[in-house]
UniProtKB/TrEMBL annotation:
One example GO MF annotation: metal ion binding
UniProt catalytic activity: 5,6-dihydrouracil + H2O = 3-(carbamoylamino)propanoate + H(+)
Organism: Tritonibacter multivorans
Signal sequence region: none
Pfam families (UniProt xref): Amidohydro_1
Name of the molecule in the record: D-hydantoinase/dihydropyrimidinase
Gene field: dht
A Gene Ontology term for the protein's cellular component: cytosol
Every Amidohydrolase-related domain range: 47-417
Length: 484
C-alpha cells in the first residue's frame, strides 16, 4: 500500500520546489513529478515540510508535588494536531535513583505515544552510580543528551562541582550537556525575601527570577562546559542576557546552542499583572515570561542564527493544580503548555510577519533539532529514505486558539483567543495520517523510540581544542632552593 502527496510545494531547511512525495512502509521512497500511489493526499496550495520536532517536553512528569497533566497519549496527540511528529521528553531520576531505573519508568509511560519520541536524561544528583550509568545510557540506550538543573534548589538542582564532573564524563563519552540556566541559590534568596515581605501572588514568581539569574547561570554553564570540553545546549533561553552569552560563545567557536520557547517569543510579562489570580498563575513557568525587549532579542537570534531551535517545554498543569500555590507563589507548579500551538504560532508571528522565511521555519522547528540531537536525516528531512514524518501545511488555513477545541488535557490555553493563520492539512507520522483536515486520527501506541548516538564529529572538534590547552609541565633550568 503506497501513499502519494500530490501537487504540493516541498519546503525544507534549504530548498523550495514543486514535487510529489511517495511513501511506502513508513518511509519516503520517491520524490519527483507525477508520482502515482494507492492513496492520494492532495496538497494543492500547501507546503510539504518535515514534521515538527519538539525537543523539550515534560509528559506525565512528577514535579512540585504533582504530575504534569498531559501524558504521552494526549501530549503527542496535541503535537500531531499542530504539525509536530516527534517529541523529546526528559527522563528524571529521583534523588539516588539509577538513571536506568528512571528510564524504565519513562519506557512504560511512553508506550502510549501517538508519534515517535526520544528522551533526554536528567542528571538530578551525582555519584559513582550516575558516572557508570551514563555509559550504558549513551552506548546501549541511544540517549546522548543530559540535562542539568541549575535551579530548583533542594529538589532537582545540581551544584557546580557536580555539573563539572558530569560535563567531563559526557565529554569522555561523546554526549551533549544541557542546562536549565537559572542561579538557583539567588532565586531561593529572592523568593524567601519576597514572601517575607508579603509578595505571595503569581507576579512574585517573575520578580524572583530576573534575567540576571538566567544570564549568570548561562555564562557559568558555558565556561564550565568549555573547561570540560563538552558541547552545551541551553534550554528555554528567555532573555537577552542569556542570548548574549550564547551569541558570544558561538562567535568564539564554542559548540553552544540556544532554545527559545514559543511562549517566550509571543507572550510577555504583563500576563503576570492580570487581576485574575488564575490567569497569572497559569502562566507561571521558569524562566518567566519577559518584556518586549527580551522578546525582540529572541526573534533577532532566530533570524541571525545565534539561537538555533524553537521548543515548548510543554509541562501542563490544570487550574486546580496551579491553585496549590494560592497564598505562596513558590508552590505554584511551574510550567505551561504549547505542543499544539508551537508551529501555528511560530508561522503566524514568524513567517507571516516576514521575520522568518518558510525554510528558516523548517530549520528551527525540525531540521536543526534533528541535526543537533543527531537523528538527522531519519527525522527532520524530506529525503528518500527518511521517515515519512511530514506535515502538509496550509498557509491559508486559520483558526482562533481556544481551550475548548484543544487536544491537551488541561482546562485552559495560555494562547487563548489568539488568531493563527497557517495550519496542518495533514500530519503524517511514519506515513500514517494522524490529522486529516482537522480530523484527529491518531493511533495510541503507534510511536516508537528514536535512538540517538553521540555526535562524535562535534566532540572531536572540542577535544582537538582541549589538546591545545592541556597542561604541560615546563622543563626548567633553574629551580630555587626551597624554604626561606
Ligand atoms: O517551568 C518549567 N519550565 N517547568 C518545566 C520544568 C523545567 O524547568 O523545564
Ligand atoms: Zn527547565
Ligand atoms: Zn484570564
Ligand atoms: Zn523543561
Amino acid at each position: 500500500m503506497t501513499k502519494v502527496i500530490k501537487n504540493g510545494t516541498i519546503v525544507t531547511a534549504d530548498l523550495t520546489y514543486k514535487a510529489d512525495v511517495l511513501i511506502e512502509g513508513g518511509v519516503i521512497t520517491q520524490i519527483g513529478p507525477d508520482l502515482k500511489g494507492d492513496e492520494v493526499l492532495d496538497a494543492t496550495g500547501c507546503y510539504v515540510m518535515p514534521g515538527g520536532i519538539d525537543p523539550h517536553t515534560h509528559l506525565e512528569m512528577p514535579f512540585m508535588g504533582t504530575y504534569s497533566s498531559d501524558d504521552f497519549e494526549s501530549g503527542t496527540r496535541a503535537g500531531l494536531a499542530g504539525g509536530s511528529t516527534m517529541v523529546v521528553d526528559f527522563a528524571l531520576p529521583n534523588p539516588g535513583e539509577s538513571l536506568l531505573d528512571a528510564l524504565k519508568r519513562w519506557d512504560n509511560k511512553s508506550t502510549r505515544a501517538n508519534c515517535d519520541y526520544s528522551f533526554h536524561m536528567a542528571v538530578t544528583w551525582w555519584g559513582e552510580q550516575v558516572f557508570e550509568d551514563m555509559q550504558t545510557v549513551i552506548q546501549q540506550r541511544g540517549i546522548n543528551t543530559f540535562k542539568h538543573f541549575m535551579a530548583y534548589k533542594g529538589a532537582l538542582m545540581v551544584n557546580d562541582d557536580e555539573m563539572y564532573a558530569s560535563f567531563q564524563r559526557l565529554a569522555e563519552l561523546g554526549g551533549i550537556a544541557m542546562v536549565h540556566a537559572e542561579n538557583g541559590d539567588v532565586v531561593a534568596e529572592l523568593s524567601a525575601k519576597l514572601l517575607a515581605e508579603g509578595n505571595t501572588g503569581p507576579e512574585a514568581h517573575a520578580y524572583s527570577r530576573p534575567p540576571q539569574v538566567e544570564g549568570e547561570a548561562t555564562n557559568r554553564a558555558i565556561m564550565i562546559a568549555d573547561m570540560a570540553g563538552v558541547p552545551l545546549y541551553v534550554v528555554h533561553t528567555s532573555c537577552e542576557e542569556s542570548h548574549e552569552a550564547i551569541r558570544r560563545a558561538r562567535m568564539q567557536g564554542k559548540r553552544v546552542w540556544g532554545e527559545p520557547l514559543i511562549q517566550h517569543l509571543t507572550l510577555d510579562d504583563s500576563e503576570y499583572m492580570h487581576p485574575d489570580w488564575d490567569h497569572a498563575a497559569r502562566r507561571v513557568m521558569s524562566p518567566p515570561f519577559r518584556n518586549k525587549q527580551h522578546q525582540n532579542s529572541l526573534w533577532n537570534g532566530l533570524q541571525s542564527g545565534s539561537l538555533s531551535v524553537v521548543a515548548t517545554d510543554h509541562c501542563a498543569f490544570t487550574s486546580e493544580q496551579k491553585r496549590f500555590g494560592v497564598g505562596d507563589f513558590t508552590k505554584i507548579p511551574n510550567g505551561t503548555g504549547g505542543l499544539e500551538d508551537r508551529m501555528p504560532m511560530l508561522w503566524t508571528h514568524g513567517v507571516n510577519t516576514g521575520r522568518l522565511t518558510p525554510n528558516e521555519f523548517v530549520a528551527v522547528t525540525s531540521t536543526n533539532i534533528a541535526k543537533i540531537l543527531n537523528c538527522y536525516p531519519k527525522k527532520g528531512a524530506v529525503l528518500v529514505g527518511a521517515d515519512a514524518d511530514l506535515v502538509v501545511w496550509d498557509p491559508e488555513k486559520s483558526k482562533t486558539i481556544t481551550a475548548d477545541s484543544q487536544q491537551s488535557a488541561i482546562d485552559y490555553n495560555v494562547f487563548e483567543g489568539q488568531d493563527v493563520k497557517g495550519l496542518p492539512r495533514y500530519t503524517l507520522t511514519r506515513g500514517q495520517v494522524a490529522v486529516m483536515d482537522g480530523e484527529i486520527k491518531t493511533q495510541e501506541g503507534h510511536g516508537k523510540f528514536v535512538e540517538r548516538e553521540p555526535n562524535t564529529v562535534v566532540n572531536k572538534a572540542l577535544s582537538t581544542w582541549k589538546e591545545l590547552t592541556a597542561p604541560r609541565p615546563v622543563e626548567r633550568t633553574g629551580i630555587p632552593a626551597t624554604g626561606v
